[in-house]
Design brief:
homodimer, alpha/beta, Methyltransferase, Cobalt-precorrin-4 Transmethylase, Domain 2, 2 domains, five-stranded parallel sheet, 23% strand
Chain lengths: 233, 233
Amino acid sequence: MSGTLYGLGIGPGDPELITLKAHAILRRVPVIAYPAPEQGESLARRIVAAHLPGGQREIVIRMPLDAARFPAREVYDEAAHEIRTTLDRGDDVAALCEGDPFLYGSFAYLFARLAATHKVIVVPGVSSLTAAAAAAGQPLALQRDVLTVIPAPLSDDEIRRRLIATDSAAIMKLGRHVGRVRSLLGELGLSQRAHYIEHATMTSQMVLPLAEAPDPAPYFSMILVMSDGALRR
Amino acid sequence: MSGTLYGLGIGPGDPELITLKAHAILRRVPVIAYPAPEQGESLARRIVAAHLPGGQREIVIRMPLDAARFPAREVYDEAAHEIRTTLDRGDDVAALCEGDPFLYGSFAYLFARLAATHKVIVVPGVSSLTAAAAAAGQPLALQRDVLTVIPAPLSDDEIRRRLIATDSAAIMKLGRHVGRVRSLLGELGLSQRAHYIEHATMTSQMVLPLAEAPDPAPYFSMILVMSDGALRR
């Protein structure tokens, strides 16, 4: 009988923000798989390191640094092949996903390759979106607010249109777009409601006013435009 | 010394989808507070029931059924007063929040009344948003997708404009608006990408095609318009 692939949401960074369910699966499966940079430590593995029982096989999915090649189709093809072989032997595999597997997660690449032929169970996790709101110490969305998640690589006009039509926003994938996003928020009068959050819930967590956001920003960062806080009813 | 108020994300419904962190706080605090209907059982309390150590004091925040009075200002004033008195005695209080406290959570009403004068720590939780995507078994947002959370009580035109400008969407607070939302999704050619999810991760979970969504819908339900699934890079 074929094994099960778990898409395991392990939360935003604090090892204690993993769910009881993910924790139990993590300790039970014989094989774990996780993304890692081309060289060096995997953040996903680091998040769960204290929970690992020891003795598990580890499938390391090393992503090439070269942005033009990311996400390299061959890397996921190869990882999917290794996971498929493991499942077909009858072993369960837990793919570690920072945050939540189905919310901008790279797990989608494994899911697309394996879900049609193998049993896949997704365990939702705490997203960096709400972790960042907790770090900023303010409600992100209330009542009848519209909340929009906007990737920073979109064009100025695309970002502007979304910001105008929303009450709250999360702007992700900041990278080298911080200056541009800051200008747009200023132009729309949203600077005061915007916070920059880096590494939410990790020991390296930083929350900064928009003006002090680093440019470029690291991968695990976002800008939140909080609800204006008026409780309307 | 004053106690700490925890805004405790307890997840979407499955008792195992609480985090280790929330679980530890839940078992440690002398007092818990949670919303409940005017009569009958609290869903929040039911989610954590198996985790409670016993012997805690419970502050029950009973919400009036009458929609015109919800959220009744006096109910939150009274609850905040009781929590404040408890904190001032030096006792910690955990306010149980379904999903995440800062993402459309009623915790905002307590936060608004107590955060300026008392220590408040928010523990993020698994949101019903990603729980519903896991239930539907498809990625909600990928790569450079824009994701928009849209409250169904908005006008047809407001909903239409947001749906046109987004890649993925979650439509919440469906209530009596299901038929109207279904028509709008059909008009925009989005019906095939839309799923109706009720009570995600609870034993009563249901996932239905849009055409079969009940009208009116219960409180813990939403319609997700999934990413078109094209992995663009």
